[in-house]
Amino acid sequence: MRVLGIETSCDETGIAVFDSNQGLLAHALHSQIALHAEYGGVVPELASRDHVRKCLPLISQVLSEAGIDKSAITGVAYTAGPGLIGALLVGASIGRSLAWAWGVPAVPIHHMEGHLLAPMLEPDKPAFPFVALLVSGGHSMLVDVQGVGQYQVLGDSIDDAAGEAFDKTAKLLGLGYPGGPAVAKLAAQGNPERFHFPRPMTNRPGLDFSFSGLKTFAMNTLHNHENDNQTRADIACAFEDAVVETLAIKCKRALQQTGQRRLVVAGGVGANEKLRQRLKQLAKHLQAEVFYPRLEFCTDNGAMIAMAGCLRLQAGQHQPTSIDAFARWSLEELSPL
Ligand code: KG4
Ligand code: ZN
Predict the structure, then answer these.
(1) CA dihedral of residues 219, 220, 225, 229 (deg, nearest 10)
(2) Which residues pair with 15 in a beta bridge?
(3) Is the CB of 28 under 6 A from ligand 1?
(4) Quick check: is 281 in a domain?
(5) Closest ligand, as measured to the CA of 139
(6) I want to staple 160 with a disulfide (CB 3.0 to 4.6 A). Which of 41, 212, 215, 298 is the partner?
(7) 179 CB within 6 A, ligand 1
(8) Residue 203 within a domain
(9) Which residue has the least CA distance to atom 7 on ligand 1?
(10) Per-residue model confidence as pLDDT tens digits over 285-301
(11) Same domain (yes/no): 190, 253
(12) pTM
């Protein structure tokens, strides 16, 4: 099976070809960061229009980099949700139309399933079952993963997702979009001893997340101190430490609660170096293993969608020729393979 994957759920056009025997053949990404930067966040209509412009040229580029003709594609996978509905519809329409024209099946993929399977693109793949920590701009989740499509959500964000909190705190500190990498860079110059931020929802049982209070804590701290470079760096540092420590506490709890020994970390915040170091240390302490996709596959990409699509199409799953996209979509509604 040779699958073309299309990711257009937010502000990145990701295209890839994944082969069931040879693995990833080629992938390309067009990021819209520059397009949205002046607005301080993603403008949905601009995102949709840019996906329209970039999708087909990127598909041609990826096919040529893979050294194959379109006739070598035996299936198409596209992100059908959750995400920005206009952006999703671009990938869904193009994916469905190409599949119809080429006479091959197409399968809609859940964006978070793509993220949680992304470490399987690496040579050192996690075996099932595992616990997945999914931390992106739209979600903070802990998921019990028994197999492809067998997902039980253990904990979810009740307000801002981890990435969203990074983005909002970055804005407050006068940093650009996306905020995660900018906050992390500034935090490296901060003094970790100066401020201590709370670890939200860790002093009660459960695995849900709430990060909106941290952003408010950052705002109040900034108002109460001299707004200079060092203060901003110290706030970035305390904020990052609080997010990392909160995620580590919940991961520990999830591993202990499920009795599992494998932790998969995916989604944009999974690119955070402090988080990676902290979870590595935690895994060692718990005699567990931790798996990450390579940095470029932590954030949105087409490779994870092509691979998830390949697994589903190989298992005979595809859908009739309807164009479907869902702005909201629970992981627990997916069917097992
Ligand atoms: O998975 P992703 O690319 O898109 C969504 O599906 O949301 O995640 C994007 C999020 C953004 O909020 C961004 O600020 C955050 O991931 N992010 C980071 C880092 N790199 C990206 N957060 C913290 N540290 C990073 N190094
Ligand atoms: Zn994502």
Answers:
(1) -10
(2) 6, 28
(3) no
(4) yes
(5) 1
(6) 212
(7) yes
(8) yes
(9) 137
(10) 999 999 999 999 999 99
(11) yes
(12) 0.93
